[in-house]
Structure formats: structure tokens, C-alpha cells
Amino acid sequence: MTDSKRPILRLKAGAAAAPVLRVEYRVVKQEPEAEWQILRNGVDTGKSRRKKQSAIDLAILDARAELETAKAKVTVTVLEAGKVTTEWTSA
Question: Which domain, by its residues, includes 27?
């Protein structure tokens, strides 16, 4: 049996951090239905509200719930009359 040493694997803290996921919740007014639709990264979540503030609050609740389970940067924006405004951003 040969007397060879096995290489030692050393890991440095913070050397390879996990990538941060970017998620955007967008509240968009749908004219024919007169409702505010909630989109996650451009995909319909199936949730909508008649009042703008109610839709924003629901989007923020969904964003906070997702933030607890994943390492992500989450933003809630509103698209109204071609103008995008940011309502909430995770720290």
C-alpha cells in the first residue's frame, strides 16, 4: 500500500454566493373588465381586484410570501396609462 495523501478540499465562505433571483409583480388595469390584474414576471397569476389599492396590497402580500421562501429581489410595480411606478421593493 502506498503512503499517498489525499487532497484536502477547502471551502471559503462567500466565495460562490447563490445568484439572486429577480421577481417582479406588476399590477395592470384591464379596460374591458375594469379590473386590476396581477402579473408575476409577465405571467398572469389568475388574481385580480376591482380596486387599484386592493390589487397592490394583494401583490405585496404575494411578494412578501415569496420573499420568505426564496433568496430573491422582489419588486411590485403598477402600469397605468403607459407609465410604470414602483410601489414596493424588497430590501
Answer: 21-86
Q: Give this prediction's pTM.
A: 0.71
Residue 8 included in any domain: no
- Residue 73 CA to its chain's centroid (Å): 6
Query: Partners of 23 in the beta sheet?
Result: 74
pLDDT tens per residue, range 3-50: 667 776 665 655 455 566 788 999 999 988 889 999 999 999 999 999
Query: For residue 33, is it within any domain?
Result: yes
Separation of CA 83 from chain center? 20
Nearest to 62 by CA among 42, 80, 39: 39
At residue 12, what is the residue type? K
